[in-house]
Amino acid sequence: MSSIKLVLQDPVIVRDFLRTRTPYETAKTALFFYFVITQSLKFCRHVQARGITDSLRDSWTWTYKQVLLLALRVPSVQKDVQQQLNKARLDIEGKLVPQGVNVSRHLVLPDEGKSMEWIIAEMEKMDGELGTHADWKHGKLSGAVYHGGDDLSRVIVAAFERYTVSNPLHPDVFPAIRKMEAEIVSMCLRMYNNPDGAGTMTSGGTESIVMAIKTYRDWAREVKGITEPEMIVPATAHAAFDKGAAYMKVKVHLIPVDPVTRKVNIKRVRRAINRNTILLVGSAVNFPDGNQDDIVVLGELAAKHNIGLHVDCCLGSFIVPFLETAGLSDGEDGGAKYKLSPFDFRVRGVTSISCDTHKYGFAPKGSSVIMYRDAALRRHQYYITPYWTGGVYASPSLSGSRPGALIAGTWAAMQYMGSDGYLKSCREIVSCARTIANTITNSIPELYVLGSPPASVVAFGSKSPEVNVHEVGDAMSKKGWHLNALTGPAAVHIACTRLTLPLVDTFIADLKDSVQQAKLAPSGKGTMVALYGLGQSSPVGPDMVSEVATMFLDTLYKA
Questions:
Q1: What are the tens digits of pLDDT across the range 484-503?
Q2: I need a surface site. Which of 4, 123, 203, 453 has the fewest CB within 10 A?
Q3: Residue 59 vs residues 53, 91, 113, 272: alpha-carbon distances, Å
Q4: Phi/psi class of residue 248: alpha, beta or left (left: φ > 0; alpha: ψ in -120 to 50)?
């Protein structure tokens, strides 16, 4: 290697070499070296971010996976796999698609329009065919339905009715909708301590996150000249970050979290930062286990390297901003310590925050807010083209036309609840979650709580070799609970809502019974055990799970 270096450094040798080459050969050689150098730099950055051990493990896993995929092409094996997938498809369709001769199917437009009475009756009939529509009101859910009460629902419906045909794409036609959207963003900015900031509404947390990624990609390209952007994301961050990165062609470095605290490994984050990094991500709180990343330290890194820091508060939404006022941000409860670290725009380095109004803000589904430290950064979120033959086209987010009724419903919900209503809701929901967490820690020795979740989510895993926590989840399903299964580690979580409040004792009793059932008589056939066991069984397991998930999505559109 040293002799090659000496040769390349000798100008006479290099000059004589170039003289013997045609311009075409010289260009081809230069292109070859350019390719080698750029790919080597990418490889070095990848290894630096992942670490040598993880890089070797990833390489081995990838190789092993390719061998298994080749084995799956053997006709006999392929036939067996296809039979299993067909069975899974039938199971999914059996659960989602109503069957029988009495099921009405509306596959074409009716020849004549139906009356309102007929439409309501048909909706009631469909609810009966597919199961009782009121099940969610029984409260045995993890998140999913963020119900602010029947009175609030009536307020939202009244707002819907008033602004049914409205569309913020036409602010001159619907000025009240424009005003309400601006006020919703303003209220959220003040809630997150940035009254001089900027933001927009979106259709949900995923769009808020995708818009943030788009914003940083365009900002980095314009301001820093970055054309191959990369972002650094905790393993516990929402999957929407991977989705947005796939859409926007941004490379993701997934960073592991501490197995005890569940916070992202800061040392690994620091190591992963390079000249192409455009964005760091932190959660307050994350979806899987409800814990919070160290936003202060992430902010210091972002400020030092002049890159973005997005804090995902989609789930924390209208809970975490009120924890401090509720007296629940720092303290001890039932022997467990709970502490919410600074997370909002008061933290140096935080440049954007996403907040779902349709979760603990109790607004109608399909509403979220993406906030930026200043309007200059928000400009990179916009799409504008002055060249369309239809005129100048400009939109603040992915959608062009948007339902103004949702904006009106969100504004109405926030006005109805007020700070006092959200404070009361925060206090009750967090107290409920901590009751569950403390009971698991102190009274269910087979289980443990992941980290120290400060807000509304509690995730629990098994510390007993005799108990499969996904068996526990399946046993809870038989008792009517709809909980979320997790992997890495295997766990189950509940996101407490106002619907959970009257059922906290029932949840604890059912959980204790389910642990004993999983311990003494595991079935091995439940949905969680089957699906998530498959996902972890081999390197091709995730591919099989993805295929099942694709079947599920296909079935959603089977009339």
A1: 999 989 999 999 999 999 99
A2: 4
A3: 10, 35, 60, 18
A4: alpha
Q: Long-range contacts: 131-137, Cβ < 8 Å, 24+?
A: 136/499, 137/499
* Structure token digits, residue 216: 């940083």
Q: Looking up tokens 């409920």, which residue turns up?
A: 432
Of 169, 224, 203, 231, whose CA–CA distance to 383 is shortest?
169
The string of DSSP codes covering 161-174 is HHTTT--TT-TTT-
Question: What is the pLDDT confidence band of residue 8, given thresholds at 50, 70 and 90?
Answer: very low
Strand order in the sheet with 491-495: 447-449, 457-462, 491-495, 484-486
DSSP assigned state of 391: -
- Mapped onto helix, strand or coil, the DSSP state of residue 504 is helix
> DSSP class of residue 389?
T
Across residues 99-109, what is the average pLDDT? 88
Q: How far apart are CA 439 and CA 11, in angstroms?
A: 76
How far is residue 15's CA from residue 17's CA, in Å, rounded to a whole number? 5
Q: Provide CB contacts within 8 A for 463, sequence distance 6+.
A: 445, 446, 447, 448
Q: How far is CA 327 from CA 22, 334, 423, 427, 444, in A?
A: 77, 15, 10, 9, 27
Scanning 482-540, the segments in alpha helix (DSSP H) are 504-520, 527-535
